[in-house]
UniProtKB/TrEMBL annotation:
One of its GO terms (biological process) is response to hydroperoxide. One of its GO terms (cellular component) is cytosol. It comes from the Bacteria. This is Peroxide stress protein YaaA. It comes from Labedella phragmitis.
Length: 269
């Protein structure tokens, strides 16, 4: 089983590991493509004004340009500890048991716009790049889709895709009976379903944490759904082929317009 997660634009800075070594990342067959994207990011960072426009940085984000310029020599952290934001706050990877972190090492992949799919414990530096960023002479979506999609499809077993649409396009996996794309929806008293934003991310983080702590390598989506029911989650077939709905009851949500439990962070989709 493989859990595919999106990254976050917000990240922990600094680190405790040595500087980046591309060949140490999971899926080493992607090293050449990673190098191309990395070179384009570093080259862009040499022109701060162009980088600010390409990365869509506001005044408080201008320092991200210097972070990208130093990305090759910066200290690293395990990928699952690098990202912050709503999903990763709910996942709270640093407080996982040692057994759950070892399980994550084998069963979690994060879809980075800079490095492509990386393992949960792969050492990565801080950086700023999203799936919609524009790099000179390089188009991120087709570049990663062509390289990363086939690599992910070669992974054996169930693929549980928790990525947002933009990041799923960086590493598309064709629909099949072993691929489940997870949507988070709310259901009202009349059975009507609606997609969520903030609680989409939070629910995905909580769900991922529960799977990791369970330590179970599920063979198919039906087996995962049966476990989910006992773990306090409702997971069932969605409206489209290959989609599964992770349901949040409307009664569990704050009133419309409430900011309870929300936090300010860059969107991860």
């Amino acid at each position: 089983m493989l859990l595919l997660l999106p990254p976050s634009e917000t990240k922990v800075q600094g680190g405790t590991g040595r500087s980046l070594l591309l060949r140490q990342l999971s899926f080493p067959e992607l090293t050449a493509v990673r190098s191309r994207v990395l070179n384009a990011v570093v080259e862009l960072s040499r022109d701060p004004e162009a980088a600010i426009r390409a990365l869509k940085l506001g005044p408080k984000g201008h320092g991200e340009v210097a972070i990208n310029r130093a990305v090759r020599r910066s200290a690293t952290l395990p990928a699952i500890d690098r990202y912050t934001g709503v999903l990763y706050d709910a996942l709270d990877a640093r407080s996982l048991s040692p057994e759950a972190r070892r399980f994550a090492e084998d069963h979690v992949v994060i879809q980075s716009a800079l490095f492509g799919p990386v393992g949960a414990l792969d050492p990565v530096p801080g950086y700023r790049l999203s799936h919609s960023s524009r790099l000179p002479g390089l188009r991120l979506t087709p570049t990663w889709a062509e390289a990363a999609g086939p690599v992910l499809e070669r992974v054996d077993g169930l693929i549980v895709d928790l990525r947002s649409e933009g990041y799923a396009e960086l590493g598309p996996v064709r629909a099949s009976d072993r691929v489940a794309y997870i949507r988070v929806v709310a259901v009202d008293d009349e059975g009507r379903r609606r997609a969520l934003n903030h609680f989409n991310k939070k629910t995905k983080g909580l769900f991922t944490r529960a799977v990791l702590e369970s330590g179970q390598d599920f063979g198919d989506i039906e087996e995962l759904a049966a476990w989910a029911a006992g773990a306090g989650f409702s997971l069932g077939p969605g409206s489209a082929a290959g989609e599964w709905d992770l349901v949040v009851p409307e009664v569990a949500l704050p009133p419309t317009g409430s900011t309870t439990g929300a936090r300010t962070s860059s969107p991860i989709g």
